[in-house]
Automatic annotation (TrEMBL):
Keywords: Glycosidase, Hydrolase, Signal. This is Hyaluronoglucosaminidase. Pfam families: F5_F8_type_C, Glyco_hydro_20b, NAGidase. Residues 193-476 form the GH84 domain. The active site is at D308 (proton donor). Residues 658-797 form the F5/8 type C domain. GO terms for biological process: carbohydrate derivative metabolic process; carbohydrate metabolic process.
Amino acid sequence: MRRRTNAITTAGLCFALASVMALEALPAVAAADAGPPAASALPPVSPVPQSLARAGDDVTVTSRVIVVADGDTDAAARDRLVRELKAHGAGRVDVVAPGRVPPVASGLLTVRIGPATRPDIAAALGDTAVPDRAEGYALRVAPAGRGARVTLGGTDAAGQFYAVQTLRQLFVRSGGDGWKVAGARVGDHPSMPLRGTIEGFYGQPWTHAERLDQMDFHGDVKANTYVYAPKDDPYHRGRWREPYPAEKLAELGELVDRATANHVRFTFAVSPGESICYSDPADRKALKDKLRALYDLGTRAFSVPLDDIDYTRWNCEADRAAYGEPGAGAAGKAQVDLLNDVQRTFVATHEGVWPLQMVPTEYYNHSESAYKRALRETLDPAVEVMWTGQGVVPAQITNAEAEQAAEVFGRKVFVWDNYPVNDFGNTSGRLLLAPYDKREAGLSEHLSGIVANPMNQPYASKVAVFGTADFTWNDLAYDARKNWRNAMSYLAGGDAEATDALLVFGDLQHLAPTFGAPWQPQAPGLSRLTAEFWKKWDAGDRAGAVGALRSHATAVQQAPATIRGGSVQKGFTADAAPWLDATALWGEAMVTMLDALAARQDGDKEASDRLLASSDALQQRARAVRVDPPRNSWGKVQPKVGDGVLDTFLLQAGLRLQLWDSTGGAENLALKGKASASSTELDLDRLAPRHVNDGKTDTRWASGYSDDAWVQVELAAPAKVAAVTLDWENACAAEYAVQTSGDGVNWRTVSTQRPDTCGNDVVRLSADETVRYVRMQGVERRTPWGYSIHEMGVYGTPAA
């Protein structure tokens, strides 16, 4: 491991010769805490500490600050402490050794940092308990005579570093340009040993600069694990036997150093499963040589992922002779043989290396199998086994599921959480900005840790990873909604206006897909507001409805400019650029539509028609925006913004204007109708036709596997239909027709559609005849599966 110097450095202006300094006199703790504690609330700290309480009044950051550190003080913690002090009002920071504190310190802020067992730190902490846990720390802020003191004591070097990360969140404004430190007492440690991310997605890997930034971000949020496993790095997977080129190896070495400086375990992963001959000594040597090259750079954590491979065949005949005919059980034996060899002859024989990590081929369930039995019974107990939960992209992870996984794998599992990753088809066109959620409190008792698999967009991924770090640090205190605001504030550099803009934007990117129904809804905030709008509108309070929603529509319109205004991290604005472009247009379209409704309500049809046309034009411009150049394998697609909520509101509002004098206006007539279909996939009740018009976006109809499949809605009464909407799942149509009928026998094709991608289709009709049935008639499937639709809406006016 590369050595990090612990020599004491002097920051800011140097002080006079230390040899003339008198020994410090440490004020008694009891005297420091005298008087009633201040009543003001403490600022939010993330991750939420195990114990955080008000301990007294806030203390002033003086223009000169004394930092007391020694050779056992973590260098990274000390350096970050000095930076934070200088960023919060200290013009001069002097670093001195214990026993060398100058007499003038009695009137200054004094900060002690180092091991919690150091005598001066132990005395200053007093009765503030120091957790007896790895990476734990205690922090105390207290007045001390004419000055004040802050004490940071860690159970280890990482604990010291994390104490500083908490302290930087306790600075509060005092007057104009002044700063104070909130009077707090903290006792803290992580609930899970392993916390962070795995860069394990398909598609364009992160750049070197982006990875360096991620290591700093990990340090800020107390995440201690980064697994390097980009699927499209050829030397990680396809060309795993080959050494990295010198230029790439130098980048990895710099990344290891940056990770180490932030107390992050850079975990190097090699994924040989596509081609390895498990029993071949040459292949085993090639694998260990690959690991050794990174060990020489300072890497002390390694992983061998064996996911997304075919384990029903061997890559060499020698494995058939060694392990028998291919199959799950034989694959388990072969993998265990390889992994035990790496753990026992490489990991255990190299100083300072953490236990080996692996990803099993059966990583997505907790059912018993011959493969899992081989791992459970023969895999070295030290090896960490990764698991994604019940499903590749699980809607939730519960304690019961984690406990069952521990039983079948024979150890606590290490969760590879496939959120917020957006490299699969259902995420096409999406940023995933919903908070980290639906992971059950108490998982720290059943897991060794969680790493989030992020998006191809690294800065946008910080929203969810911020939550992952908070949850894994203290799952029992985790609050997804509070964390979401804290995450946005972090990205906004604490700017309140930019934070609010990010929350508005994030609401429009809230949908979190799985390979079935989404596990987080789209735009829950806007959905609630539009529902309230229609309730008021239909109750007759039309002016009130417009006024209440217009303020939020304006916020949507203005959010992109605010986000791009300078406070938000530039990497985020680059990641989100096409979505921000589209959001500005959708927001303007919404404001314009509301103005059109208000004008029509005031009797000005001419202005209303003009505004409606303008809104329609803005919507078309929004739909024309493309993610270009794409970082994902989706290609140049339309960025999805509040889809199924914002566009549906605009459709309904436009139809109300077009059908102003009609009874019912823009009612979704499908909700009162009866659905039927040509077929249902595997005759599964959960995919039955009735789900296509149940008003729920988390259910769906799916057809059998034929191009000519169809689904239809029989309306409750004959109607003139102005529009049909189709909320497609990822198995959508490359071409389909919308047909209508008065009797369910004779059909008329009223529109043929060839959508660019799977999403929410809005098909406008002429409403020139009365019909009873509306059908989606498939022409050509986009996938080998059938057609799958979450919701089919039919908008128009009942003929009666």
